[in-house]
Amino acid sequence: MHLTRKSRVKDLYATPIGKDVIDKLLLQMNINKRWISNRIVSNMSVKTLEMLLKKKVGPDFFDVLLNLFNQESDIPSVSYQDDVKQWWKEAVFYQIYPRSFCDSNGDGIGDIQGIISKLDYLVSLGVNAVWLSPIYDSPNDDNGYDIRDYFKVLDEFGSMDDFDVLLDELKARDMKLIMDLVVNHTSDEHVWYKAAVDNVNSPYHDYYHFEKSDSKMPPNNWTSFFSGSAWNYIEKNDEYSLHLFSQKQVDLNWECEAMRTDIIEMIKWWLDKGVAGFRMDVINYISKPNKLSDGNVVIGELMGYYGIEHYFYGPKLHQYLKQIKQEAFLPYNAFSVGEMPGIGMQMGKLLTGPDRGELDMFFSFDHLENPGYERFDDYQYDLNYYKSYLIDWTENFSDTCWMSLFYNNHDNPRFISKINPKPELFDYLAKLLATIQLTYKGTPFIFQGDEIGACNQDFESMDDIRDIESTNLYQQCLKTMSPQDAFNKIMAGSRDHARVPMRWDSRMHEAGFTSGTAWLKNMDNRVQYDVAYQQAQSDTVFNYYHDLIALRKASEVLVYGDVEFLYKKVKHYLVYQRVSDSDVYLVECNLSDGSLKSQVQRKDYELVLSNYPNQCQTLRAYESNVYKRRKLM
Ligand code: TEU
Ligand code: CA
């Protein structure tokens, strides 16, 4: 159906993009989704709604939305049953941020030999797949997410020989490796870009987004994720170059067929080496419209970035993903997980449905903040929202598609620090989060440090901070805030909380990460939260992760079994069963730091794992219990 101003709100909401975008906008504004299903609202025409909101949204807001919603003519299939077994559904992934994992040569920077030296550590934890953040040659403007040469290993990390050894050593341990694939942009030091700027008639000029501008202003109002305009003026050629991230991360032009062919060759080159697949960096941003017009101001203010509606689900996204899958992934049976900020559930189905031939899985980020909050807000996260998120995605997504399960990565402060700051509850909470992640339906991605209870850092000043997103944002904040307020904001959201070096042994210099001086300081001085202590003592977060992973590996029902919720409406109480023909597990969690009445019929179940030593009818703070149903005699 073609949507116009005569269409009703419910018609908009019935389209896949309409549903996701409206949900997202409501989430940003902290308005309950129920608002949209209210009879009066849902039957209202767009025209009427526009009149009502006129003062708030201005004239082109609904044009933008209608265009966006009309762009997608497909609808997610509802009948498809995803019961195909795949290694990546059964795997427990571990994300390594190479710069901060282990330094082998004392230069303060983690490296490939360091990773190799810790592979047996990963085996002892039980994980069997690794996602390695970028190790490619890079000037490191954004810690490797700005690639200068896709075929070379960054000197600081080692050599291609080191990489080949890593791959062999992983294979010897029966572990898979997936690489980071960063193809929305390259570094401005990539040979393609240099050729493009050198000579506007070079074929490489077409590999990037260059635009002329008549005024002395950039071609449009798009902003960069790292503050300021998304355009950089190239004086020599009197034109602007697009960069959605840092100035040194220039956006590739996916309209250019030769560029796509080169990227696909590069992907195949890595697959030939034996990597099992890719985590695809901001892959939903690769398709930009032909005409790069201004971003809508209302959407820009709400989302924090101008222009996003033009490219977060661009016109040819499906086509490009299908091409990558057909030409590169399928011949190698490679696995793909798309990192896709802003993609909601319905769009996610269209991008990862097993019948669609695009991606296998994706990272959605909507669970990382409570409604109405964003990453740089300082607030206490309410886990009841995570519960509602799990219920929603399980009931409406995972019947046809496969979820990813994670709390942390290199782009976010530690999730646990957002929830409850009381040190005496820390272990219970860490274990509760682990319990859900490893007994739920979907593929778990553990981020380095999760397993030893890593938390946010008490950075003392901006001098301690390295991340370009934080340093740029700090400068921007200083325009309107006091230095203290600006620093507090950075502390709430900085990616450096997660990027500090691993703590191997706190009795050692730099906690065993390096014999030199670490590139970023780890300020954590809790001696119990390092690998040495966590492995040596029982009852630690590490051992709990270990036991959960072992349980998951031994119980197919924890991978493929259905999820059934119980006591859905009871606040703070998360209870679900994993069910197959032969087995039933029951997981019971108290999501609060208070006590709660347990409703489980104990006689029917036997306890398998718990974060408390003994069980009673009252659940204590963050108590989580995993039970197995007794077989009937
Ligand atoms: O991140 C993409 C992304 O949009 C965010 O998670 C980002 O960190 C932040 O929110 C921007 O405001 C990916 C990578 O994971 C990240 O490390 C890179 O900086 C980014 O892409 C650019 O390659
Ligand atoms: Ca090193």
Features:
globular, about 625 residues, binds calcium ion, alpha/beta, 5-stranded antiparallel β-sheet
Question: How would you describe this structure to a colleague?
Answer:
By secondary structure, this protein is of the alpha/beta class. Helices cover 35% and strands 14% of the residues. It has 25 helices and 22 strands. An eight-stranded parallel β-sheet has the order 13-12-11-5-2-1-15-14. It has a five-stranded antiparallel β-sheet with strand order 16-17-18-22-20. β17 (573-579) and β18 form a beta hairpin. α12 (257-273) runs parallel beside α15. It is globular, with a radius of gyration of 25 Å. The model has no long low-confidence stretch (mean pLDDT 96). The structure holds 1-O-alpha-D-glucopyranosyl-D-fructose and calcium ion. 1-O-alpha-D-glucopyranosyl-D-fructose is lined by residues 142, 145, 182, 225, 245, 281-282, 339, 341, 410-411, 469.
Question: Which helices and strands appear, and what pairs or packs with what?
Answer:
Elements: H1 9-13, H2 16-29, H3 34-37, H4 39-43, H5 46-57, H6 61-70, H7 87-90, E1 93-96, H8 112-117, H9 119-125, E2 129-132, E3 136-137, E4 149-153, H10 160-172, E5 176-181, E6 185-187, H11 191-198, E7 210-211, E8 231-234, E9 239-242, E10 249-251, H12 257-273, E11 277-280, H13 297-303, H14 308-311, H15 317-332, E12 335-339, H16 345-352, E13 361-363, H17 383-396, E14 404-405, H18 415-419, H19 426-439, E15 443-447, H20 468-478, H21 483-493, H22 496-499, H23 531-536, H24 541-554, H25 556-560, E16 562-566, E17 573-579, E18 584-590, E19 596-597, E20 605-610, E21 618-619, E22 624-629
Parallel strand pairs: 1-2, 1-15, 2-5, 5-11, 11-12, 12-13, 14-15
Antiparallel strand pairs: 3-4, 6-10, 7-9, 8-9, 16-17, 17-18, 18-22, 19-21, 20-22
Helix pairs in contact: 12-15, 19-24, 20-21
Bound molecules: 1-O-alpha-D-glucopyranosyl-D-fructose and calcium ion.
